[in-house]
């Protein structure tokens, strides 16, 4: 897209918008070819305000309504995205506005005109990541003192799975209480280590969707328990008292037997679908996002700095906003490593890996963290997700391409100036140098300082200064 933008003499953001973003300002349906790579588009989306109002009418969309597929966009690979879930156009517009992209783009262009040995770049890139939680199972048990033990089939690896599962368990079991007494204290729930002895065939933990699947399995188990215990509820003054009184009423003697119709353990299974009967459908959706990243390049050394990153991400209604925020930030920084520093080198003859340690293989460190890092969530429920949420983590990795493309823009500015393709008069007019691809430089990941320096090209500083003086 950057190269196409250079050929057309346009800002790359406009080229991306023309190729990826349909016009959602109309409610009339018409078939339009937006690009040979995108496929067919039938626009039937409401305007931004109407879409937000429509999605906020209910937090959890009725499964029967979910099945009423609306017109939308079909990708070249055959992936259909219905118009009520295609949030990228609204997200894109909001990000350009909140990040002040146009003003900053003009400032970057002026900076590049005023500075010969330091160049900046600013680029916005879109993100689409397909998600489909795998089938998983879970078990929930309630003890005589009212405490709850949850065993799920997922693996906690720092993504916040355990915390989300505890929250969902509380939300599910709180349905036993009067509405004004909800929710139960989170301290009642304990999550056991995953064990195939308790939960066989637990399923995989992958693709940033492990939390969603396990949460749904826990919700299903909790719903079974609530259904069994409804007739035994003993309402007291607060939620915790009601809960403990209800559980205590099930233990009439010291032996601990409970009525056979009020079992205090239940298994829950998520088979990858939500809804029942004719309204049953698979949990499959696309996670959308976009990122604006601004960078600075030292032309003489190839050193680079990530000045700022502004991410807008559609996480549906996050299961835990704090955790999902951390996942997005962490995913982006992980991607920065792949884009800017993690270079694998091998011996030309033997094929042995030469970058086998962090002495030569550079993982992301504090010098790559954006100096200003902003993450915003969209405010749209996911009608085809679990509890209206979307996955976080891996989709944000893709947003790191904005840093690579911004550096490519900075390198191109440096090459154009060094090759004499950016005359001072043009800079004085504040014009953007586009449409001439003779100075366009393709930058591949990882954009390490040596690679950046090499892409700019070999030059002698003395010769460059002499040429600059002669031009005065």
Characterization of the model:
- About 12% of the residues have low confidence.
- The longest helix has 21 residues.
- The protein starts with a helix and ends with a helix.
- It has 15 helices and 14 strands.
- The strands form five sheets. A four-stranded mixed beta sheet has the order 5-12-13-14, with helices on both faces. It has a four-stranded mixed beta sheet with strand order 8-7-6-9.
- 35% of the residues lie in helices and 18% in strands.
- Helix 1 packs across helix 2 and helix 7 packs parallel to helix 8.
Characterize this entry briefly:
The chain is of the alpha+beta class.
What structural keywords apply?
472 residues, alpha+beta, four-stranded mixed beta sheet, 15 helices, elongated
Q: Return the structural class.
A: alpha+beta
Number of strands: 14
* Large-scale geometry: elongated
N→C terminal distance: 36 Å
Unreliable stretches covering 5 or more consecutive residues: 24-52, 54-69, 421-426, 428-435
Percent helix among the residues?
Answer: 25-40%
* Tally of helical runs: 15
As a whole number of angstroms, the C-alpha radius of gyration is: 27 Å
Strands of the biggest beta sheet: in what spatial order? 5-12-13-14
Strand residues, percent: 15-25%
Helix-strand string: HHEEHHEEHHEEEHEHHEEEEEHEHHHHH
What profile does the largest beta sheet have? Answer: 4 strands, mixed
Give average pLDDT, whole number.
83
């Amino acid at each position: 897209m950057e190269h196409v933008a250079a050929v057309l003499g346009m800002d790359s953001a406009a080229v991306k918008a023309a190729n990826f973003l349909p016009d959602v300002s109309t409610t009339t349906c018409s078939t339009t070819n937006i690009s040979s790579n995108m496929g067919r588009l039938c626009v039937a989306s409401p305007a931004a305000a109407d879409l937000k109002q429509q999605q906020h009418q209910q937090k959890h969309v009725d499964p029967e309504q979910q099945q009423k597929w609306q017109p939308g966009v079909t990708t070249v690979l055959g992936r259909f995205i219905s118009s009520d879930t295609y949030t990228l156009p609204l997200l894109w517009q909001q990000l350009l506005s909140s990040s002040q992209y146009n003003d900053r783009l003009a400032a970057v262009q002026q900076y590049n005109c005023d500075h010969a040995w330091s160049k900046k770049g600013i680029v916005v890139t879109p993100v689409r990541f397909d998600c489909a939680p795998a089938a998983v199972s879970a078990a929930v048990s309630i003890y005589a003192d009212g405490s709850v033990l949850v065993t799920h089939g997922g693996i906690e690896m720092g993504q916040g799975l355990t915390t989300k599962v505890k929250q969902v368990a509380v939300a599910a079991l709180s349905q036993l209480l009067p509405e004004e007494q909800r929710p139960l204290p989170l301290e009642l729930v304990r999550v056991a280590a995953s064990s195939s002895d308790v939960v066989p065939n637990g399923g995989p933990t992958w693709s940033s969707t492990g939390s969603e699947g396990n949460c749904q399995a826990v919700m299903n188990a909790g719903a079974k328990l609530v259904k069994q215990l409804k007739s035994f509820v003993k309402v007291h003054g607060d939620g915790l008292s009601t809960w403990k009184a209800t559980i205590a009423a099930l233990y009439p003697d010291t032996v601990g037997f409970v009525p056979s119709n009020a079992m205090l353990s239940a298994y829950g299974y998520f088979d990858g679908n939500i809804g029942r009967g004719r309204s049953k459908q698979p949990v499959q959706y696309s996670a959308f996002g976009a990122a604006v990243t601004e960078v600075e390049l030292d032309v003489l050394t190839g050193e680079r700095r990530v000045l700022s990153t502004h991410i807008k991400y559609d996480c549906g209604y996050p299961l835990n906003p704090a955790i999902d925020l951390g996942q997005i930030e962490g995913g982006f920084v992980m991607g920065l490593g792949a884009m800017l520093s993690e270079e694998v080198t091998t011996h030309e003859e033997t094929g042995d890996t030469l970058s086998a340690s962090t002495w030569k293989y550079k993982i992301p460190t504090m010098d790559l963290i954006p100096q200003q890092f902003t993450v915003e969530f969209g405010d749209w429920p996911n009608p085809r997700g679990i509890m209206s949420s979307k996955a976080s983590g891996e989709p944000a990795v893709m947003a790191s391409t904005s840093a690579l493309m911004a550096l490519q823009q900075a390198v191109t500015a440096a090459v154009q100036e060094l090759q004499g393709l950016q005359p001072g008069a043009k800079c004085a007019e504040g014009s953007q140098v586009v449409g001439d691809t003779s100075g366009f430089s393709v930058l591949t990941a990882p954009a390490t300082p040596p690679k950046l320096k090499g892409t700019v090209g070999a030059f002698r500083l003395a010769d460059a200064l002499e040429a600059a003086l002669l031009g005065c």
